[in-house]
């Protein structure tokens, strides 16, 4: 499924009702977001939807995702090594 060119952004809470995340630290201000959502498609099959807010360049988006991937890889490796 693709996003239509004429679709308008809506509030994140409206787009993802019932989804909860941990709050930001005190006195932090959200500027944008990257969201990967596990969903069920119209036929009930698990699928993924990816959304970003305005304000991210391709380079910034790639950098953020690369760093998060590296951090997750490190955490998974540490958990695996602790299991030995």
From TrEMBL:
What is this protein identified as? Answer: Uncharacterized protein
Q: Which organism is it from?
A: Actinomadura rayongensis
């Amino acid at each position: 499924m693709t996003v239509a060119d004429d679709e308008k952004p809506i509030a994140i809470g409206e787009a993802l009702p019932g989804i909860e995340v941990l709050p930001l630290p005190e006195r932090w201000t959200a500027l944008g977001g990257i969201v990967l959502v596990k969903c069920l498609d119209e036929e009930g099959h698990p699928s993924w939807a990816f959304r970003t807010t305005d304000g991210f360049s391709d380079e910034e988006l790639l950098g953020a995702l690369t760093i998060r991937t590296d951090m997750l890889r490190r955490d998974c490796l540490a958990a695996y090594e602790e299991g030995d």
